[in-house]
């Protein structure tokens, strides 16, 4: 449900919310998280994964993550997938994701620094 804009203050609040959402996806930050959004990923639920990821990062006040989208990387049976690269360049590829798993990854890996081994591909 969207709220009505009835004043310049409402418009400014909406603008600021949009800017914050865009900031999650832009600029170099400590961590880059890429949700793979090829046809196979979208069919498997990548839109929910992307939405949950951005909402969770926002709710937790995490500001050191850049969120991006990419196409298919050829592991269709592991979709929806996310690739996370930390500031040292280490890459983690998570597969078979859903909203609950994304929340766990944000809590344990992004905020806590410990990869969630059971969701990693090839580990």
Would you kindly provide a written description of the structure presented here, covering whatever features stand out?
By secondary structure, the protein is an alpha+beta fold. Helices cover 41% and strands 16% of the residues. It has a single domain, classed as Glutaredoxin (3-Layer(aba) Sandwich). It has helices at 8-23, 39-44, 46-60, 99-111; strands at residues 31-36, 65-70, 82-85, 91-94. It is globular, with a radius of gyration of 16 Å. The chain starts with 7 loop residues before the first helix and ends in a 12-residue tail after the last helix. The model has no long low-confidence stretch (mean pLDDT 87).
Q: How much strand content do the residues show? A: 15-25%
CATH class: Alpha Beta
Order of helices and strands: HEHHEEEH
Gap between N and C termini: 41 Å
What is the number of E strands?
A: 4
Give the number of helices.
4
Q: How many domains, in number, for the residues?
A: 1
Shape: globular
CATH architecture: 3-Layer(aba) Sandwich
Helix content: 40-55%
Cα-atom radius of gyration: 16 Å
What summary fits the major beta sheet? Answer: 4 strands, mixed
Here the CATH topology equals Glutaredoxin
Side-by-side strand order of the widest sheet: 2-1-3-4
Low-confidence stretches: none
């Amino acid at each position: 449900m969207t709220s009505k804009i009835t004043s310049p203050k409402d418009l400014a609040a909406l603008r600021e919310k949009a800017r914050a959402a865009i900031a999650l996806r832009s600029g170099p930050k400590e961590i880059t998280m890429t949700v793979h959004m090829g046809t196979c990923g979208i069919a498997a639920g990548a839109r929910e994964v992307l939405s949950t990821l951005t909402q969770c990062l926002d709710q937790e006040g995490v500001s050191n993550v850049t969120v991006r989208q990419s196409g298919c990387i050829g592991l269709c049976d592991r979709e929806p997938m996310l690739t996370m690269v930390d500031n040292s360049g280490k890459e983690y590829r998570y597969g078979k994701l859903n909203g609950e798993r994304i929340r766990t990854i944000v809590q344990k890996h992004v905020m806590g620094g410990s990869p969630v081994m059971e969701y990693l591909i090839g580990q």
